[in-house]
């Protein structure tokens, strides 16, 4: 495909949307209105679905890197006659610094070409395609802009070179010599009830984006192991946060396949409750306390009070109806169909959803004293639902679309909900409530320890009364259900690693087509919590080396070809890296003998000077 490999993509963000641009200078993905809006460039899913290329004519080689502590990408193209740099960034609001970054971004993509040596002939090909490639835009010259409009969107392209436009696309050829610079901006605006796109200077956009991202990163520090990888992952997670609401999208893309040519091609541009507690732990690790409050606010508003099944995911502004539908006109990445918008997992019962918010609330409890009434009502309702629903079968955390089962990890997360509710005590309920939650918690634990364990495979298994293995049970020590050095947990870790791992990549289940990145990092955390410093560190480094050249992870990695698979970049993967690095840091600091969770990160918080309230 013209969009290249998944791992070829670089990631730009502005707090509202994301751009993917590949090593050949092609912008292959942009949904400028917001992460989950229709695209104007979707070459990743079909050659005809829109792109914007700036690259040398003829043969070239490529080197690229982010400018330090930013999501500003610098790509150097070297040819037989010289070299040029293309610097790409999504604009931040002028002067936005620190925690203001991304709140009011103007939705402008800037590209600056700088001659480094010799002279390099380049070409530009601009081909917007609106509504996921359905609509060819009209291109009209208005003053100094080439205006593309279709449906409810407008794009204004400004260039310092002449452009020749044809039906639905424009071309340009130019030569850049050492010391010369050319700037390009592409601004988006809704077609109705809004003014035209912002008019910005490309070089000023780059400079402001650099200053903005660096000011944000300057507020957050992490001095544990693997500092460079952790800081890069923290910035990627921030880039996938929809700043107006605080929602973290699982990924900024849709329908990138878990298996080439396969059918598991889902839309990940929504916020999952499952990611929540792991995200907050990761933010604690890098001292992003302001982002914690933003994420919690989004979750409380989105979840509200529920009758029936508690949704496990929401739109970036809290939408609940995420009905899935097919885009039959798109070929799909590498021919992988169907291409899907929306995600019907929002309809599923997933009982782990009760545990994540309560676990997250316990981690940040010093910010919840006194507890706001809406948060109290939400957490209390989730504790009640966990006590009521834990015995019901569900779809499991991997969102299997066949019959519901009694998944062990779902039961464990119901235990987590009840355990944290008991810990909160009178902050959540009466003495009778706490006693009832404690009784239900203990009942869940007994059920998991008996029906979730298989003597035949010497491990905790995917579901009750089965011998099937599943990487999700590695959550047990991470949430404090069972210590990692418990003999049963050690046996489980060893068995899962032996049977589901290949070359450091851990599949979720037998038959999973590729290694799942976060479950691989869970294995690192489990080994660290079990005190196996050397093996945990070696595995972490092997996994970290699997990122692309920019330090970005997809959802999965083929253990044989090394190809990145699934939506990209994947927040869950980067969150796993941060938390695993933190667990290894705790191990080096002699904290591996602490209860694994929820207290396992509290010493790090205390050392950073943040107050801790122990309820």
Helix fraction by DSSP (H/I, runs of at least 4): 25-40%
Q: Estimate what percentage of residues fall within beta strands.
A: 15-25%
Distance between termini? 56 Å
Task: Give a short account of the largest sheet.
Answer: 14 strands, antiparallel
How many distinct beta strands? 28
Structural features, described:
With 615 residues, this protein is of the alpha+beta class. It has 15 helices and 28 strands. The strands form seven sheets. Strands 1, 2, 3, 4, 5, 6, 7, 8, 10, 11, 12, 13, 14 and 15 form a 14-stranded antiparallel beta sheet that branches. α7 crosses α8 and α13 (533-544) packs antiparallel against α14 (571-588). It is globular, with a radius of gyration of 24 Å. The model is unreliable at 593-615 (pLDDT under 50). Residues 224-508, 539-581 form the GH15-like domain.
Quickly describe the structure.
It is built from 15 helices and 28 strands. By secondary structure, the protein is an alpha+beta fold.
SSE topology sketch:
Elements: E1 10-13, E2 18-21, E3 26-30, E4 51-56, E5 61-66, E6 73-78, E7 82-90, E8 108-127, H1 130-133, E9 135-136, E10 138-142, E11 145-150, E12 153-159, E13 164-166, E14 169-177, E15 181-190, H2 202-218, H3 227-239, E16 241-242, E17 247-248, E18 271-272, H4 274-285, H5 289-303, E19 313-314, E20 325-326, E21 340-341, H6 355-363, H7 373-389, H8 408-424, H9 431-451, E22 453-454, E23 459-460, H10 475-478, H11 487-500, E24 501-502, E25 505-506, E26 515-516, H12 517-529, H13 533-544, E27 556-557, E28 564-565, H14 571-588, H15 602-607
Antiparallel strand pairs: 1-2, 2-3, 3-4, 4-8, 5-6, 6-7, 7-8, 8-14, 8-15, 10-11, 11-12, 12-15, 13-14, 16-17, 18-19, 20-21, 22-23, 24-25, 26-27, 27-28
Helix pairs in contact: 3-14, 4-5, 4-6, 4-14, 6-7, 6-8, 7-8, 8-9, 12-13, 12-14, 13-14
């Amino acid at each position: 495909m013209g969009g290249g490999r998944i791992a070829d993509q670089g990631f730009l963000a502005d707090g509202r949307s994301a751009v993917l641009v590949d090593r050949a200078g092609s912008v292959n993905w942009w949904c400028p209105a917001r992460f989950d809006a229709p695209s104007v460039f979707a070459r990743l899913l079909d050659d005809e679905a829109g792109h914007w290329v700036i690259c040398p004519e003829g043969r070239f080689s490529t080197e690229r890197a982010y400018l330090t502590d930013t999501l500003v990408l610098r790509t150097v193209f070297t040819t037989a006659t010289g070299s040029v740099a293309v610097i790409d960034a999504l604009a931040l609001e002028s002067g936005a610094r620190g925690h203001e970054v991304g709140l009011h971004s103007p939705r402008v993509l800037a590209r600056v070409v700088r001659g480094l040596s010799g002279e390099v002939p380049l070409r530009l090909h601009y081909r917007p395609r609106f509504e996921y490639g359905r609509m060819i835009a009209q291109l009209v010259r208005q003053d100094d802009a080439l205006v593309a409009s279709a449906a409810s969107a407008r794009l204004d392209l400004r260039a310092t070179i002449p452009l020749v436009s044809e039906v639905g696309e424009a071309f340009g050829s130019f030569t850049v010599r050492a010391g010369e610079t050319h700037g390009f901006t592409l601004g988006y605006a809704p077609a109705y009830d809004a003014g035209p796109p912002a008019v910005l200077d490309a070089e000023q956009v780059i400079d402001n984006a650099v200053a903005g991202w660096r000011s944000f990163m300057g507020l957050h520090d992490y001095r544990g192991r693997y500092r460079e990888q952790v800081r890069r992952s923290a910035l990627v997670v921030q880039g996938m946060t929809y700043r107006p609401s605080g929602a973290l999208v699982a990924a900024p893309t849709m329908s990138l396949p878990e298996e080439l040519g396969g059918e598991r091609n889902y839309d990940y541009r929504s916020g999952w409750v499952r990611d929540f507690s792991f995200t907050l732990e990761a933010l604690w690790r890098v001292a992003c306390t302001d982002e914690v409050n933003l994420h919690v606010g989004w979750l409380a508003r989105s979840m509200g009070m529920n009758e029936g099944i508690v949704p496990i995911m929401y739109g970036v502004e809290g939408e609940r109806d995420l009905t899935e539908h097919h885009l039959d006109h798109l070929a799909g990445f590498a021919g992988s169909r169907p291409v899907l918008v929306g995600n019907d997992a929002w309809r599923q019962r997933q009982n782990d959803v009760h545990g994540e918010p309560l676990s997250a609330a316990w981690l940040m409890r010093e910010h919840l004293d006194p507890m706001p009434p809406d948060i109290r009502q939400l957490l209390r309702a989730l504790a009640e639902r966990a006590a009521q629903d834990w015995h019901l079968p569900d779809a499991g955390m991997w969102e299997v679309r066949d019959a519901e089962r009694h998944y062990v990890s779902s039961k464990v997360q119901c235990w987590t909900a009840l355990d944290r509710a008991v810990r909160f005590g009178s902050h959540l309920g009466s003495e009778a409530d706490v006693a009832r939650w404690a009784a239900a918690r203990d009942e869940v634990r007994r059920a998991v320890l008996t029906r979730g364990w298989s003597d035949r495979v010497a491990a905790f298994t995917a579901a009750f009364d089965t011998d099937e293995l599943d990487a999700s049970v590695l959550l047990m020590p991470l949430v404090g259900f069972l210590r990692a050095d418990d003999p049963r947990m050690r046996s489980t870790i060893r068995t899962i690693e032996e049977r589901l791992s290949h070359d450091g990549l851990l599949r979720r289940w037998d038959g999973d087509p590729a290694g799942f990145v976060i479950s691989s990092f869970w294995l690192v955390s489990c080994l660290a919590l079990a005190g196996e410093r050397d093996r945990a560190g070696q595995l972490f480094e092997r996994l970290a080396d699997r990122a692309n050249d920019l330090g970005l992870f997809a959802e999965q990695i083929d253990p044989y070809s090394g190809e990145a698979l699934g939506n990209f970049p994947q927040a869950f993967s980067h969150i796993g890296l941060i938390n695993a690095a933190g667990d290894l840091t705790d191990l080096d600091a002699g904290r591996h003998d602490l209860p694994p969770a929820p207290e396992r990160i509290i010493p790090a918080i205390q050392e950073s000077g943040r107050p801790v309230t122990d309820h």
